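sry for the spam today, last one i promise. struct tokens for design, 406 residues
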């Protein structure tokens, strides 16, 4: 690759609130050089505040990196260094971890199989760790007593690679309180296969905006939905907009936002309200923000003179690609209720057309799929270096929403 870039995956608590970010590098092999490159990117190209927002990040390191003098480059309270499973655990490593812990640095044990052999191997360094990430699929014999053993060592236990809600439920039953894995982006579906009254009101407002209802009709509809109006006022007064003067009415809010921004907020509200956690930071919603930002930025990269209509389409393809995760309804049925155009459906389901191509590229970025990324860049004669500012900018917008919703 001509450029390295960083991805991140959320780690959440039992309520679904975002606690940590696990950081990934496009450099596949984790070694001292790869970690140094990632740290350099955090310092320079991305910036740690842009990358992590108000969260703590986990960075994977091998045993050799522990002896490098690079720890002072990042603020010790923002980073947990996650030791790889194949690291060599000896007296020298234990002494170095003990020294660094006394200096305030934080360490974890990266995704490892919970086996008697591994516990024996890592026992010498457990006193110097803050948390352990257990590879759940590779730990079939994991028991409640095992988790209790780790808690007695004052360790935070994270269940890693939790891919289904069944796996999540099993982890909870064993006492695990933090989780990382694909299930995070697939929240529990609503039991009844229909929108609730609140969801129906949100969908009605969205459809009014798409059908060019006049401002008087919109004001009346919002005023009839008091909770939605209150949330809108709270949002427009957040850091996302940075208004100099307070808003004076619903009409004022609608005028300030404009139809495009209002449509985006309405769809975002649908995501947040489904989760029923107005006070929690929802990883799925932040994933939506990241995806829509990447969609629109990739569009502008390829089409510098893209119209507002094109940008709006790119945005909604990104957002609608995740909406089926919210309801116990078929994806196409939800899109029908939202009066989605056929070309958007084809982009979502077949990866058809230009917007389908953009969506495929965004998914490749999310998964750090080097092959898929390379296909897209080669087709459009782009260098890898163009990804870095796009990814960083999207992460910054995610952090702004994280602050606004928190």
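last one done:
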């Amino acid at each position: 690759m001509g450029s390295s870039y960083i991805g991140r995956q959320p780690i959440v608590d039992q309520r679904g609130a975002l606690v940590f970010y696990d950081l990934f590098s496009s450099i596949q092999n984790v070694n001292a050089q790869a970690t140094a490159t990632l740290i350099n990117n955090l310092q320079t190209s991305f910036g740690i505040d842009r990358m992590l927002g108000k969260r703590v990040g986990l960075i994977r390191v091998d045993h050799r990196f522990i002896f490098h003098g690079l720890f002072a480059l990042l603020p010790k309270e923002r980073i947990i260094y996650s030791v790889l499973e194949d690291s060599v655990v000896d007296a020298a490593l234990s002494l170095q971890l003990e020294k660094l812990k006394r200096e305030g640095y934080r360490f974890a044990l990266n995704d490892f199989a919970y086996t008697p052999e591994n516990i024996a191997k890592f026992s010498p360094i457990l006193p110097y760790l803050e948390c352990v990430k257990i590879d759940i699929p590779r730990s079939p014999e994991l028991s409640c007593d095992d988790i209790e053993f780790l808690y007695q060592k004052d360790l935070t236990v994270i269940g890693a690679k939790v891919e289904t809600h069944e796996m999540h439920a099993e982890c909870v039953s064993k006492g695990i309180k933090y989780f990382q894995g694909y299930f995070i982006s697939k929240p529990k579906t609503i039991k009844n296969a229909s929108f609730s009254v609140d969801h129906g009101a949100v969908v009605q407002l969205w459809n009014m905006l798409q059908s060019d209802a006049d401002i008087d009709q919109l004001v009346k509809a919002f005023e009839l939905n008091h909770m939605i109006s209150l949330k809108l006022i709270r949002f427009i007064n957040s850091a996302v907009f940075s208004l100099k003067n307070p808003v004076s009415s619903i009409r004022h809010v609608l005028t300030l936002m404009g139809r495009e921004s209002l449509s985006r907020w309405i769809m975002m509200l649908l995501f947040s309200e489904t989760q029923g956690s107005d006070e929690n930071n929802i990883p799925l919603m932040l994933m939506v923000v990241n995806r829509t930002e990447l969609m629109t930025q990739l569009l502008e990269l390829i089409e510098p003179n893209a119209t507002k209509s094109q940008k709006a389409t790119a945005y909604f393809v990104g957002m609608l690609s995740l909406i089926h995760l919210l309801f116990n309804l078929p994806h196409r049925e939800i899109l029908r209720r939202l009066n989605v155009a056929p070309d958007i459906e084809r982009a979502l389901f077949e990866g058809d057309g230009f917007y389908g191509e953009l969506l495929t590229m965004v998914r490749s970025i999310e998964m750090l799929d080097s092959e898929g990324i390379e296909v897209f860049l080669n087709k459009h004669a782009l260098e890898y270096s163009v990804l870095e500012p796009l990814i960083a900018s999207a992460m910054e917008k995610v952090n702004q929403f994280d602050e606004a919703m928190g």
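Residues 250-275 form the longest helix (26 residues). ok im logging off now
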